[in-house]
C-alpha cells in the first residue's frame, strides 16, 4: 500500500502540492509562490535564456496571479527592447530591470503601487516613462544613470506624485525627486515652494550649467548634484535661510560649510572664503582647477573632499591654520598634486 500511495503521488501535477516559497518555471520565466490564498506568485527571473525584443509580463502563471517582479529579475537583459507590465503586478522590485541597455519603452499598467530602488537604472535607451495613478511609492533612485531619459510623466490622478515639464516631484511640490538626465536644458530654476532636493535628484545631469535654488529650499540631500559635469554655477535666492551662493559656489547660510564647488566652474584657482570651518565632499573632478587656498578658519576637511581633481597641483594653508582633522583620502586621485604639508597636530579621521 505504501508503494502504491507513493506511486500515485508521483503522478499528481507538481503544482497541486505547491506551498509558499515553492518555485516553478513557465514559458521561459521563473516564479516563486508568495501566497496560497489568494494564489499569487512573484516573477523572480528568466528561465535560462535572457528575453529579447518585446516582453509582456503575464498576468498569471499556472493558475497564480503574478503580483510582483522580484529584485534584479531582468538585470542585464541588454537586448530587451520593450516591457509591458500588467495590472496584476503591485510591486516592481529593486534593480528589476537595471542595465537593460536596449530598453526603449516601458508600459506600466495602472495597478502597480511600488517601484523599487534602481528598478530602471542604467536603461540607457529609455527616453520617457509614464507613472500610472496607482503608484504610491517610488524610490528616488529608480531611474538613476538612465542616460537618455528626457521626461518623466505622471498620470493626473496620482495622489502621491506629480510631473512638471518632465521633472518628477511629490504631489504637493515640496520635494524635487528626479530631474531627467538627458533633459535638454542648460539652466533650471527649481520651482518656488520646493523644500527638499532629494537624493541623486540631479545625478549625472551633465547638460545642466546653472541651477537656481529658491528661498523655500531647506534640505539639499547628499549626492543631489553628484556627477554634474557641466555645472558652472549655483544661484541661491537671497531670502533662503539655509543656503547661500558666492561666486557660484554653494555654502550653508552662515558661510561656515563649503557644500559644493561646481564641477565645471571656469577657474584655475580658488581661495576658500575666510570663516569657512568645514569643507564637505565639495570638490569632485573640477577639471582645470590647479590651485586651492584654505583659510585659517577651516577645522575639518571631509572624506574625499577633493576627489579626482586631476589638474590640482597645489593646496596651501593660510598662516595660523586651525585645521584639526581630515577625513579619509581627501585628495584621492589627485595625481598632479604636490606633497601637502598639513599644520601640526592634525588628526586623520577614518
Low-confidence stretches: 1-16
At the first level of CATH, the class of the domain at 18-149 is Alpha Beta
Major beta sheet summary: 8 strands, mixed
Number of strands: 31
Structural class: mainly beta
Overall average pLDDT: 93
In helices, the fraction of residues equals under 10%
Count of DSSP-assigned helices: 1
Q: What is the radius of gyration?
A: 26 Å
Q: What would CATH call the homologous superfamily of the domain at 18-149?
A: Ribonuclease Inhibitor
Strand residues, percent = 25-35%
How far apart the termini lie comes to: 70 Å
CATH-level-2 architecture of the domain at 18-149:
Alpha-Beta Horseshoe
CATH topology (fold) name of the domain at 18-149: Leucine-rich repeat, LRR (right-handed beta-alpha superhelix)
Shape: elongated
Description:
The chain has a domain at 18-149: Ribonuclease Inhibitor (Leucine-rich repeat, LRR (right-handed beta-alpha superhelix), Alpha-Beta Horseshoe), CATH 3.80.10. Helix content is 3%, strand content 33%. It is built from one helix and 31 strands. The chain starts with a helix and ends with a strand.
How would you summarize the topology of this molecule?
Elements: H1 2-11, E1 23-26, E2 29-36, E3 39-46, E4 53-56, E5 60-61, E6 64-69, E7 80-85, E8 91-92, E9 105-108, E10 114-115, E11 128-131, E12 137-138, E13 151-154, E14 161-164, E15 167-170, E16 175-178, E17 187-189, E18 196-197, E19 210-213, E20 219-220, E21 233-236, E22 243-246, E23 249-252, E24 257-260, E25 269-271, E26 278-279, E27 291-294, E28 300-301, E29 314-317, E30 325-326, E31 347-348
Parallel strand pairs: 3-6, 4-7, 6-8, 7-9, 8-10, 10-12, 11-13, 16-18, 17-19, 18-20, 19-21, 24-26, 25-27, 26-28, 27-29, 28-30, 30-31
Antiparallel strand pairs: 1-2, 2-3, 5-6, 14-15, 15-16, 22-23, 23-24
Amino acid at each position: 500500500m505504501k508503494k502504491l500511495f507513493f506511486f500515485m503521488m508521483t503522478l499528481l501535477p507538481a503544482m497541486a502540492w505547491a506551498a509558499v516559497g515553492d518555485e516553478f518555471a513557465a514559458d521561459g520565466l521563473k516564479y516563486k509562490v508568495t501566497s496560497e490564498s489568494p494564489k499569487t506568485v512573484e516573477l523572480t527571473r528568466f528561465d535560462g535564456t535572457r528575453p529579447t525584443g518585446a516582453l509582456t509580463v503575464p498576468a498569471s502563471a499556472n493558475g497564480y496571479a503574478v503580483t510582483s517582479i522580484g529584485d534584479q529579475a531582468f538585470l542585464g537583459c541588454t537586448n530587451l527592447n520593450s516591457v509591458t507590465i500588467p495590472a496584476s503586478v503591485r510591486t516592481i522590485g529593486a534593480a528589476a530591470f537595471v542595465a537593460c541597455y536596449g530598453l526603449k519603452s516601458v508600459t506600466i499598467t495602472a495597478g502597480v503601487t511600488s517601484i523599487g530602488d534602481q528598478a530602471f537604472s542604467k536603461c540607457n535607451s529609455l527616453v520617457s516613462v509614464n507613472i500610472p495613478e496607482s503608484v504610491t511609492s517610488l524610490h528616488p533612485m529608480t531611474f538613476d544613470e538612465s542616460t537618455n531619459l528626457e521626461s518623466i510623466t505622471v498620470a493626473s490622478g496620482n495622489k502621491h506624485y506629480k510631473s512638471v515639464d518632465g521633472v518628477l516631484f511629490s504631489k504637493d511640490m515640496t520635494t524635487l525627486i528626479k530631474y531627467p538626465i538627458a533633459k535638454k536644458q542648460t539652466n533650471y530654476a527649481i520651482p518656488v515652494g520646493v523644500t527638499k532636493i532629494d537624493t541623486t535628484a540631479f545625478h549625472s545631469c551633465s547638460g545642466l550649467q546653472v541651477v537656481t535654488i529658491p528661498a523655500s529650499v531647506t534640505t539639499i540631500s547628499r549626492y543631489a548634484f553628484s556627477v554634474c559635469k557641466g555645472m558652472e554655477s549655483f544661484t541661491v535666492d537671497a531670502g533662503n535661510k539655509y543656503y547661500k551662493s558666492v561666486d557660484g559656489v554653494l555654502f550653508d547660510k552662515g558661510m561656515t560649510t563649503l557644500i559644493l564647488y561646481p564641477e565645471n566652474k571656469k577657474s584655475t584657482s580658488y581661495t576658500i572664503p575666510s570663516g569657512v570651518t568645514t569643507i564637505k565632499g565639495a570638490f569632485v573632478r573640477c577639471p582645470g582647477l590647479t590651485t586651492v587656498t584654505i583659510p585659517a578658519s577651516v577645522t575639518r576637511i571631509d572624506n574625499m573632499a577633493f576627489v579626482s581633481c586631476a589638474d590640482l597641483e597645489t593646496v596651501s594653508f593660510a598662516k595660523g591654520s586651525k585645521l584639526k582633522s581630515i577625513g579619509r583620502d581627501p585628495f584621492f586621485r589627485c595625481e598632479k598634486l604636490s606633497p601637502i604639508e598639513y599644520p601640526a597636530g592634525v588628526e586623520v579621521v577614518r
